[in-house]
């Protein structure tokens, strides 16, 4: 533990040296004029996590345009202790194997533009997460009828929590909190609409194939669709900063407020044969991090084939003169559980309904305007199994170019009976201990 903390401090101190002169200016070579670097981040005018940065315009003529934009992130993750054992909700003994690795974690390259009319826009994205060895090329097509209605088809996030609807990658750290990671839905193919229903009131609605399309082939999908919708109200200033991201980097002189509610419903399937212990559906987890569709998750030899996922989230936040508070409450249920035994015969699940409540709260303050931010995080699940996993900690963000386009992040988080899982985020199921991270990301 002492050695890990020493590594953490040494690496972070070295990275902190790479700061840029606060008087540095960015010059547009075509006009020789000074360019505000903060303009390299668009407001989130498109629905969901797939909104690019401003990027670089490659082609533009009366018929069409083409723009390229980039997001990239690398980080060191150290989950402690190195090894441990833990009991899941069935009191089955499991092994925790803590990570200690350095990865170029995520790359996203966006190609965007319009065709025929600025109302018809397209996006094609190259996306890769090296920790999971996943690479995809996806996109969507949108048509803006008015500011009240934009309709699209393609990849979209299920509108079940706020961080799936714009803030990425402007989180407090380089990833989501434990409660978000454990309960959230994912990204799917579908159709979606969004717009400003009334002044300062915005909506999103998504009809998708399922809760998460990652790792799921079309041949395995059922005939059920996921349905989700979200409302966001900005009563004071009508906005919440670029993308609605965390922190008041922009230093609001008038208090900015946001209130929102999101709901998602999906009849979920394990998406592969019952005889296969590991399901293709890895999005739905129990509150101890165990995959819900994993054989033996609820009872020995039993496999859940289908269940209904419902989640409601309520979020609120404010930003004022460098101080920002973000919080969200979660309520998830798993019902109508269809299960079979080892002989593929239908059996009754030991629980007809599984309820999970949770929350996250984050407080951020710009200690040095546009340069240095400190923050604290707490998230927790109040679950069916009385385990009540939680995390508490905080971190520091340094902005070397005095913009959101480049950030260096360091975070220390204590986790008790971790509910998140996988290598996509910062959490591994069953952890009780400290996770240290140092990362850097860019958005162009």
Task: Give your account of this protein's structure.
With 444 residues, the chain is mainly beta. It has two helices and 22 strands. It has one domain: Porin, CATH 2.40.160.10. The strands form three sheets. It has a 16-stranded antiparallel β-barrel. Strands 1-2 form a two-stranded antiparallel sheet. A hairpin with a 1-residue loop joins β7 (100-115) and β8. It is globular and about 65 Å long. It starts with a helix and ends with a strand.
Morphology call: globular
Task: Strand order, main sheet: write it out.
Answer: 4-7-8-9-10-11-12-13-14-15-16-18-19-20-21-22
Element pattern in H and E? HEEEEEEEEEEHEEEEEEEEEEEE
Q: Which spans have pLDDT < 50 for at least 5 consecutive residues? A: 8-42
What is the CA-atom radius of gyration, in angstroms?
A: 22 Å
CATH class: Mainly Beta
Short recap of the structure:
The chain has 444 residues and is mainly β. It contains two helices and 22 strands. It has a single domain, classed as Porin, CATH 2.40.160.10.
